[in-house]
Queue: 2 jobs
Job 1
Amino acid sequence: MPELPEIETIYRGIEPAILNQRISAVVVINHQLRWPIPKKLPQVLTGQHIKAIQRRGKYLLLKTQTGTLIIHLGMSGNLQLKPQNHTLAKHEHVNIVFSNGLALCYIDPRRFGAILWTDKDPLQHKLLKNLGPEPLDRDFTAKHLFDRAKRCHSSIKQFIMNSKVVVGVGNIYANEALFAAKINPLCKASSVSLERYQLLTKKIKAILRYAIKHGGTTLRDYSDSRGQKGSFQNKLKVYGRQGQLCVNCKTKLKQIRLGQRSTVFCPSCQNLAIKH
DNA sequence: ATGCGGACCTGTTAGC
DNA sequence: TGCTAACAGGTCCGCA
């Protein structure tokens, strides 16, 4: 489900509803996510206030007086705001109930997501401390990619999907950004020129911003915290369009698998190998 | 240090 | 119609 634009959309939806709110109850229906939800969570959270909410890559951080709740939505997770007396959805695993009567509901069919607690600096948590820069921040630059790529042997697509290189670029937006920058996804990251990385950096930023503006991409079941679907799926130029014609040159789009992920590109427009 | 495949899960769809 | 296999928005872990 969620890449950076989807997480950002969820973040913007829940922030005004739960900031400074008091947690009146925490109900865990199923502890078994990617890692077990800490047993002590209801005890730790109840009575606390949400002091700040932050997104780091695809992680959401909910800070209270005593620590931080680290939430990752995995492949199929979602957060929904509902009245506290709502009926439970299928695959609804956690409810965080606030004194304003709203419940923040964690729903995740595949349970690849995670809900963890830390009382230390969350950015130094094992899962977050090695993350690369935020793609929409100033320190995400062409030079950063170019320098980092020198010691990388993988393809450009796997390179930009590596969260140690840059966070938030998942399969959909990796495909779209490489198409926009006219780079073949199979091309070695180390063979891409600084000039081409300048174009790619611009395209990644532009596509992520544009997707956020459109509320993210709803392929099957993604929706924001109020149940609203995204619309960026209508703007996709290559992802999911294998066999259809390139919007630029009418060549048939090709699909391959790269690192077990579906990869779609235009063999004509994205012909950049070593040259640029 | 880097890279690869497997693992974690359920649901939907394509193909026979 | 029904069964099976492949695939789906992520990413950690163990091993080479």
Job 2
Amino acid sequence: MNIESGLKIGALARLAGTTAPTIRYYEQIGLLPRPVRPAGHQRRYDTADVQRLTFIRRCRDFDFSIDHVRELVSLLGDPSSDCKAVQDIGQSQLDIVRAKLLELRSLEKMLAEFVDRCAKSCTGGPSSRCRPLAKLARSGPVKPTRRDPRHESLVPSQSRHTKR
Amino acid sequence: MNIESGLKIGALARLAGTTAPTIRYYEQIGLLPRPVRPAGHQRRYDTADVQRLTFIRRCRDFDFSIDHVRELVSLLGDPSSDCKAVQDIGQSQLDIVRAKLLELRSLEKMLAEFVDRCAKSCTGGPSSRCRPLAKLARSGPVKPTRRDPRHESLVPSQSRHTKR
DNA sequence: GATACAACTTAAAGTCACTTGAGGTTCAAG
DNA sequence: CTTGAACCTCAAGTGACTTTAAGTTGTATC
């Protein structure tokens, strides 16, 4: 039974949709505050931590950098920040999210069409004659040719560093 | 003038929409074959290389992993392989994109509500009463206090290279 | 032919945001 | 009191490049 009230790190991880090592990492880089550690050495969390971490996890799921998330989180939690600045930064983050939504919808459309063409024209034949696949190799960019990453726009369409 | 016909690495990079270091990296991991090197030490490419690299770059734009791309490339070159496998890879990628779309819409809603609350409750001035979404960060602002030395050199205090 | 300079070469280290591993400690159940 | 899951720290590994350092080649101009 839990006499010391509060969530252990595993419970927090489950509730926020992440993992215990990730939580420790966030604490290490200062993205999460150091939690209380009653009795033994183990960290204990509360529902506020669940909400904060869930917010962070969502931002990370959409490729906001740790620095961006740090900015957003501290902005949301700082009562002394100028309200107008809070609103402005929130709005610009919203603009970025909306731009990403547009990009992602376009990517979904392209992929859906690709799979659809596959289903229709490639009924089990050899893949060397897979026309949708071959089409990818023909010249002319599907989207504007990728720029030098150093000049990448504010809103990259895809992260090149995501893992799966 | 180019007596030795063939593209140099920079020209290939421009035509395929990527960079020279990336091409060398792909060669190193065996995603691209080692090209001819007539005369001096420099790599020379032809139009087949442009097509192959364009294909690879486009797959990466679709956020396929390097392993997925490797699979697709060998599928494309193997006359005995099944077109259905190509479709499966595309479909699983589509599933991932659709899941991301759902999450991104949820994030957009959170941010839009935040900005909306800002606009309504914070009518200018240094508002100590501005606490929209306070429940997300009730335990106070997260300060990038003492961090792991590894990360310290990267981000001194403000984001220098705001990559995203 | 000399010279300047961009574009090329390699190898190695750096980057981001975790993830995994090794080796040990704590805690609730049986 | 023992078992075993869950916790702890610290270090090293991962993916997909990117950057850096230090040297070489190719071409255009004088």
